[in-house]
Structure formats: structure tokens, C-alpha cells
Amino acid sequence: MQLESLQLLNFRNYNKANLEFSPHLNVFVGQNAQGKTNLIEAIYFLSLTRSHRAKSDKELIAFSQNQLSVSGNVSRLQGKLVLDIVLSDKGRITKVNHLKQSKLSDYIGHLPVVLFAPEDLQLIKGAPSLRRKFLDIDLGQIKPLYLTEISQYNHVLKQRNSYLKTNQTIDMVFLSVLDEQLITYGSQVIRQRLKFIDKLSTKAKQHHLQISNQQEELSISYQSSIKLTEGKSIEDAFRQQLKKQLDRDLFKKNTSVGPHRDDVLFSINNIEASFGSQGQHRSLILSLKLAEIDLIRETIGDYPILLLDDVMSELDNHRQLKLLENIHKNVQTFITTTSLDHLHQVPNDIQLFHIEKGKIIQETAVH
Prior knowledge:
Elements lengths: L1 E10 L2 E7 L4 E5 L6 H13 L18 E10 L2 E10 L2 E6 L2 E2 L3 H4 L5 E4 L5 H4 L2 H15 L2 H22 L5 H40 L6 E6 L10 H11 L1 H7 L10 E6 L2 E2 L5 H23 L4 E5 L7 H11 L5 E5 L12 E7 L2 E4 L5
Parallel strand pairs: 3-13, 3-14, 8-12, 12-13
Antiparallel strand pairs: 1-2, 1-4, 4-5, 5-6, 6-7, 9-10, 10-11, 14-15
């Protein structure tokens, strides 16, 4: 997988930009607040049609403009393709090879990315919603149908919660119809998440053992709000739990169980990782990102693109080396940094981009 070029129009502080990339390592160098992360964000946006940091899509559109466009030429094992996104007040238009895509699941997955940013450390100690978002993004890239399943679930969940909130008298027959739809879509979501976590945990465990010099064993488990037991289907367990929580849901006027309430638990040597040191957290997230790369490669048959946003300075020499050992030559990588001094053991075939106040100076790749 390779992003050969990127074209921006009115994206953040770039009114117009056209970049061509190395198939290996691309480094955006510049001081803070010059636009380095905006380029990482643009690649992420091209992949997933959303920003990893903006609260609103409108933030992405350059000041005094009413729309933006991001385009990229992608080379995959199956061949080349062109991706386009136009974002305006009227909404978002996505195209693959100049053909408009009506569904998100038809677009996402053409340019899989793995992002490693400083805020990823919040995955360990942050709110459960961050870990659910992590699951949804990764699963959506390797199995686009999952996006449809989670969308269907969220739609019924919204209907159920709205019905509980706005009706003084509850029609139990109608509520049971909503419940069955919630069970159908929710069970599909949970089933996909369980499979994903099982595979991810195996791969992350291997990487973490290597990074910690065989001293630490990482495990990742899915924490469901539904009591899942052997011999009982997810659907039956979900149905039983909804009945058990019915009085509570009627009183609180919301839905207390389902994948929207689930979580992911990280443990190191059988102790919750949230109690670990900063160094352990960095090793865990690094292991997680390397496992994501492996899993995407195994699932789609091609490597994803790796985006490293200001994280090399967060990693010591040992962790930097482990990262670069795993990605060199196989994974097209984009790094932002304020100085090349942070980069140790960097291969010599890199493409440098110097960023200053939204202006990009591209150096010829060194070989």
C-alpha cells in the first residue's frame, strides 16, 4: 500500500498543496503550529473521511472558504486508484476513481491507515468511549460491513432511547420490537469486536514481549456489559440482560446494556495497565500499533500506511529502534517532528518536507 501523492485545496492552513511521497519514509519537519500535523490529518481524513482531532468538520475548511477538497493517488497490490473527498456546508462527497460513493462502507478501506499520536496514551487511562472508538475505526477499515452494522445498531439505540424519554406510557409490544432489532444488530457488533480483540491480543502480546525484553506479558480483553457465557448465544444473553435491566431503563429513560456500554481492558503481567508507569504505557501503545499493522496486513493482504504524529520524541532509543525495525521497507510511513535530532537509527532513504507557516519545501529523497 502506498500513497503516491496528495492534493489539498483549502484544507486547514493550506490553500493549495501538491505533494509526492517516497514509498518508504516521509518526514515533515518544522516548528510547532506551522502545519505539520495538518498534513497527517489530511491523510487520515482521506482514509477515514473524518479528522482524528477536530470536533467539527467545519474546522478543517480554511478560513473564509466554504469548501475543501483532499485527493490522493493510491497504489495497492490490486492496482492503482484515485480517492477524492469534497467537504462543504452541504456535506461530504466521497469518490473512488471519480465515481461517487453512496455509502461510507463503500469508501473506507481503500486506504487503511494506522495512526500513532501522543493522545493515544489516553487509550489506557481515558474514558471507555475512546477505546470503543479505537475498535470501531480499526474494524471499519478491515471489515467495512462492520460500519453498516454499528450504524444500524446506533440508529435503533437512538430510537429506543428517544422512545423511553418522550413517552409517559410505554407500549411494551413496541418496545419489544425495538429490543429485538437492538439485539440483532448489537450481537453482530459484539461478535465482530470479540473476534478482532482475540486476534489483536495475540499479536500485541508478541510485540510487547519483544519490546520489554521478555519481561512483560500484555493481554487485551473485551469487557461486555452483557454477561456472555459458554453455551448461550450472544443474542440470548443480550435479551436476558435487557429484561433484567428493564425497570432500570424505564426509570432512567436510557439503555443500560449493549455494545455502546462496552469497554476494552489492557493488562500487563495480570495487572491493569492503567496502574503502570509511563514507560509501560508507551510500550503498550507501541505494541498495539504494531499489532494493528500486522492484523490489517493479514486481513486485507496489504500493509496499511503508518502515521506517526509527534511521537518519536516520546520514545526512547530502544523503543524507536523496535518501531523502525518492524516498519522499515514494508510500511510507508509519515512522521512529524520538530527536529531530526529525535530520530535515531533512521534509514537513509527518506523524503524530507520542511514546513513553515503552511509553506512546504520538498527535498529530493536521499538514497
